[in-house]
Predict the 3D structure of the following.
Amino acid sequence: MVIGLLQATLSIPESHSLKDKRMVLRSLKDRALNKMNVSVAEVDQQDLWQAATLAFVTVAAEKDVVEQRLAAVSEHLRSDPRAILLDYETHLL
């Protein structure tokens, strides 16, 4: 069993309120949940309008599957024009 974690720091420059931020994050999280077999939570910067830190976690029997899922998540985050991926870290357990 392999557990993978991707922690991403995002900038949401067009957000002017927490409501705007929640709309963008909800969309990002919902698409990740529907398309990839991952769990996601906002883990830091909850009170900032234009920044967010999301954690994505997945579990699989093989390391390659976990790495593919995390790579798909990072590509998904890069492809959304509403949020800018500033930094991310991946960890495998």
